[in-house]
Amino acid sequence: MVVVVAGLAGSSLALHLAEAGVDVIVLEARQPGWGASGRNAGHVLPTLKDRSVFERFPDGGKAFLEVFREHHTITFDLARRHGIDCDATQAGYLHATNRDGVFDSLKAASVYWRDEHGQRVEYLADADMEAMTGSRYYTRGVLYRSGGRVNPYLFTNGMIAAARARGARVFGDSEALALSRAGTRWRVATAHGAVIADRVVFCTNAYPNAIVPQFTNNFYPLTAYAISTRPLSPEARALVMPGGATLAQEPVDLNPLVVDRHGRIIVSSIPSVSRADDAAGSFARHLAWIHRTWPGTREMGIRMDDYWTGRVALRDVEFPGVFDLGDGVFGLMHFNAWGNLMAPLLGMLFAGALAGDRLDRLPFPLEKPAPVDDPGKQHLIIRRLLIPAARLAQRIGVI
Questions:
Q1: pLDDT digits (tens, 9 = 90+) for 160-193
Q2: pTM for this one?
Q3: Three-state SS for 290?
Q4: Domain regions of the chain by residue span
Q5: 393: Cβ–Cβ under 8 A, 6 or more apart, which residues?
Q6: Which CATH number applies to 1-87+149-219+318-368?
Q7: 52 CB neighbour count, 10 Å cutoff
Q8: d(Cα 256, Cα 271) in Å, to the nearest integer?
Q9: Strand bridging mode 257-259 / 265-269
Q10: 20 to 30 A Cα–Cα from 62, which one of 261, 264, 280, 355?
Q11: What is the pLDDT of residues 122-139, one digit of tens each?
Q12: CA 82 to CA 156: how far, in whole Å?
């Protein structure tokens, strides 16, 4: 079997196929973790954003939700099982707000995950929030103890290393350039040679090439960025998120934040339309928010260390695309904003179905990729409208 692209999904797929004894080859145009799988901010959210998506599943999503209940900690489980040194830290995922109405909505949404999935959910207020965040700005919060953070680049490469140790062959700098029939099988050609396999799975996400045209226009591309600071001083480290949780602000998460094991703040967002490479401007916005949220940091000399951008792939539905083109060609991609959990999970599930030749037992439906009507829609809605409006609201103190 051939897996095209070694991101989070492709790496998990290769690892679980290799564990099942399947002969698997991975072709990566650059190196494992090059795209969004290695460039995201490392949030591990242990819930699903929109359960209405399961209305289109034949069983109403029952089978998938049962699997999710069992494996919603798969990021941390895989890191432990395979000894992957990737800062996989289950310190909690905190939705923070200073609005009572938003807090009530967050609590209402959490009841399902607490009661039906047995997740440990805590409702924090005032002194408990200050103890967790180090700030008095956010007065209410819903904490999911199952969540946390991970270094996605190290996690991706750790899964690839584990797959290699189990017999998978992985080739970097080997872009798949052509797909053609070889009798009843498939031939995938690169600049260095070709491989022949019964099945080919494309995990190209927001970086497709033209060899499978159906995967080039079935998503909404969006540019995102992330920033890491230099390691904080001991004083700043004790002040900013001393509870260690991953922070999401509600109702608009303009500054999703983790503090990693090195004491670096990592934040991410969507860049301005005109200056996606404006690292200094982007950092200045986040630093102003940090100083507002933790006033004591103003004299602590927080400095930017690195800034990077990349493309993400969005869909109209809050569920990944698992595609069947027929005759053994598949796609596994488009994880929206929660790939650090869903990509390894779906990689595991898809590998099991492929290895056992039981695609009919997948707990989600296979689809045919369909072109989106306006590929620039999310760029317009999010990057040109929603984000600028939210930043203005943040500057004037509305959020």
A1: 999 999 999 999 999 999 999 999 999 999 999 9
A2: 0.96
A3: helix
A4: 1-87+149-219+318-368, 93-130+138-145, 220-314+374-399
A5: 252, 399
A6: 3.50.50.60
A7: 10
A8: 14
A9: antiparallel
A10: 355
A11: 999 999 999 999 999 999
A12: 12
